[in-house]
Amino acid sequence: MSQRVDLAVLGSGPAGMAAAVAARRHGLSVALFDEQEGPGGQIYRGIESAEAGRTAILGPDYAAGRPLAAAFRASGATHHPRATVWRIGEDGLSWTSPDGGGEIEAGRVVVAGGAMERPFPVKGWTLPGVMTAGAAQILLKSAGRVADDAVFIGCGPLLALVATQYLKAGVRIRAILDTTQPRSGMAALGHLPAALAAPAALAKGIGMLARIAASQVKVFRRVEKVELLGEARLSAVRWRGPDGWHEIATERAFLHQGVIPNVNTTMAAGCRHVWDERQLSFRPETDDFGRTSLDWLLAAGDGAGIAGAKAAALSGALAGHAAAHDLGRLDAAGLETLARPLIRARRRELALRPFLDTLYRPAQAMRVPQDDDVVVCRCEEVLRGDVARAVAEGCPGPNQLKSFTRAGMGPCQGRLCGHTIVETIAALSGAEPEAVGYYRIRMPMKPVTVGDIVGPTILKEENHG
Ligand SMILES: Cc1cc2nc3c(=O)[nH]c(=O)nc-3n(C[C@H](O)[C@H](O)[C@H](O)COP(=O)(O)OP(=O)(O)OC[C@H]3O[C@@H](n4cnc5c(N)ncnc54)[C@H](O)[C@@H]3O)c2cc1C
């Protein structure tokens, strides 16, 4: 092992940056790794290089990332950009990057790998011209690229956010197909009193919906079924609403039905996970500080349960302070004093979640495909019909399904299909998702070369011939 630090952090979003800054306050040596060029994660992507025009389009929440990125830069933590972490363990982690990878020993590891967009397995979702709303936002954030006349399909705060950012940028939106379930509005009302503890976030959401309503964009509500049509690429969207089937010609569709924790890293590490029925996803089991069932591993941010950017920064700071405590650099009283206001502030941020999670609970028909010709595993082109056949032949779970169909054995290692497969098997077998379980993820959790794994040793030997 070449280097050693007290704390290794995976992810430079709000959680990762806050964890690094907090740990540095106690003099810990910190190394942070992220695939991206600069710090920022999903929400603050490209924040350091974003010019005023783009920042204005992306809004104040985006601009709020600047001071955190600056604090991270000033913290003295070592930043490893363009670094993909492919292994984590009690001894530390391994990464690969265009500048050459390596391994690092660490006393503690904070995984702040963030969230990913929930899969949207409907007919035609793999067609060219179809992407997620988050991907469209990434193009806007990182390259200022937008597309006119797209059809936005789905539900959830991020879909509304990207649509309003598009409207602010003066981009034409062809239509919005809203898949919010009518009855979820009623169910969410029960959580509204608690949500009033986060008035600013609630007002922001209402503001986005008002902006869309005031625009010329046609919004179709209560969409129950969606089909994306086309041969070589998307040519039309077909949907069933309360008044029957409709169709609209378009070459571009942006799908979104919420975000889920990116659990592959914590799953590969082997810490305990629970099924969160309200968020319809697995997440690592953690305490208030992000400590997992493995004493060397902490999880923070949306990778530990969807809570949003502000809560992510708060949980990152809690994890950074806890790592200092657990490494003997901060006493219990000191930790408790630092933690109290952070936990209180996070509770306020979390007050809105039950309302949002219930209001924008994606319909089962949009999570668990009904038609046999729908692709569920994009890497291996496994269809819903293949899964149904395997379950009918007695396949109990995702790991057995691998041998039946190769689902989850492609380059993404099940990251993109994991939750669809779990819920599809649960729906077909009548078992609970928790009982079905998730893929057993092994290292390397990201595609790497043999050279990355065996590192410089082989290369040196070759040179010496
Ligand atoms: C596409 C997308 C767009 C979003 N946009 C917004 C938005 O505009 N506004 C908003 O409020 N919320 C947005 N969210 C929600 C977002 O999850 C949170 O707001 C916030 O970014 C969570 O912070 P975090 O620190 O937990 O994770 P992130 O900010 O997601 O940061 C995690 C970082 O870890 C990196 N990473 C993950 N795995 C590895 C690995 N193996 N090796 C190296 N690096 C790795 C990722 O590249 C990322 O940079 C978005 C979510 C997604 C998925």
Give the number of DSSP strands: 21
Bound molecules: flavin-adenine dinucleotide
Q: What is the total domain count?
A: 3
Low-confidence stretches: none
Task: Give the topology, please.
Blueprint: E1 3-10, H1 14-25, E2 30-33, H2 52-58, H3 60-63, H4 65-74, E3 78-80, E4 84-89, E5 92-96, E6 102-111, E7 115-117, E8 130-132, H5 133-143, E9 150-155, H6 157-168, E10 173-178, H7 182-189, H8 192-195, H9 199-214, E11 218-220, E12 225-229, E13 236-241, E14 244-249, E15 253-257, E16 259-261, H10 264-269, E17 273-276, E18 281-284, E19 297-299, H11 309-326, H12 332-350, H13 353-359, H14 364-367, E20 375-377, E21 382-383, H15 384-392, H16 398-405, H17 418-429, H18 433-436, H19 450-454, H20 456-464
Helix pairs in contact: 1-4, 1-11, 5-6, 6-9, 7-13, 11-12, 15-17
The protein binds flavin-adenine dinucleotide.
Explain this structure:
The chain is of the alpha/beta class. It folds into 3 domains: 3-116 and 260-330, FAD/NAD(P)-binding domain; 119-257, FAD/NAD(P)-binding domain; 368-465, BFD-like [2Fe-2S]-binding domain (Arc Repressor Mutant, subunit A), CATH 1.10.10.1100. Helices cover 40% and strands 21% of the residues. The protein is globular, with a radius of gyration of 22 Å. The structure holds flavin-adenine dinucleotide. Flavin-adenine dinucleotide (FAD) is lined by residues 10-16, 33-36, 41-43, 61, 83-85, 112-117, 134, 137-138, 158, 161, 259, 265, 301-303, 308-309, 312, 446. Flavin-adenine dinucleotide binds at residues 10-16, 33-36, 41-43, 61, 83-85, 112-117, 134, 137-138, 158, 161, 259, 265, 301-303, 308-309, 312, 446.
